[in-house]
Amino acid sequence: MESKKPQGQPWYREPMMWMVLGGPLLVVIASLITYVLIVRGSDPVLERDPISEAERVGKELTPEQRESLLPAIKARNHVASPVIQSDK
Prior knowledge:
Oligomer: single chain
Helix content: 55-70%
Number of helices: 3
Strand content: under 5%
Largest sheet: none
Distance between the termini: 93 Å
Radius of gyration: 30 Å
């Protein structure tokens, strides 16, 4: 009985090679897509304090605008320097 030796295939026809290289290749492609999304869709940098910035450029805020900014400013200040309240 004659035994047949499998003939060598080109490297790109081996399924195991694609299983080994497929995962890292997918990660590299996903990271490049993520980088492109980050660069193209970055958010604009906001001013630190909208009320003082409006006054600096000479723009007067209406009382409604000033009042609507207060919760955001209060939250920003709380995050920057949190106050721990105790129930004593």
